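Annex B. Sample input.
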Amino acid sequence: MRYEILDKPDFGMAKITFDQPGESMLVESSAMVAKHSAIDMQTQMKGGILGAAKRKLLGGESIFQNTYTATAPGQELYIAPGAEGDLETLELNGQQEVFLNSGAFVASAPSVQLDTQWGGAKGFFSGTGFFLLRCAGHGPLMFASYGAVHAVDVGPQGYICDTDHVVGFTGGLQYEVTKVGGLKSLFFSGEGLVCRFHGQGRLWISTRNAGALASFVHPFRRVSSSN
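Annex B, continued. Sample output.
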């Protein structure tokens, strides 16, 4: 299986080329853009009803996911996230875990295990929700963000990222949610809460966030007057 990301970073789309029959990709619902007509598609609730419902309610993923399986060499599959933004690919080697923000998952090989991971109360305040999606196993993992995805290698001195810009991070990192400065900064600086990462690993951040866009367009909304 070969894959490449096209049209980065504004309108990222993945092109997957299957090298032999039987190769497959697990893809989020509605993420398919185009495919070879002979590629087989099966819709299922991965992990059964309880596992799928858990990912939907706690991890922000679809209940139903589609598995695309090649029937001949050279067949192509194109996939893309729903929101305008970037798409990133990581090859898992079975020795690492990746934690994704709610809704960031797009696709993976069936050999990648997906499960929700309790984030504690700090997750509620961080904007990542109570749960993160834990990804482990072997094979490609594709995830997306609104805006471009930028990777940061975090070292011993740690790193700080706005909570709304966290896309995902590797299992070697731990984080705590805190404020940038004092109470005045929390309420009047416009920065709010941040994630303070420590440990050793990689952090993926987004260059934009939907909340900031909503705040920007809010003054321009059309308001109907009542007579």
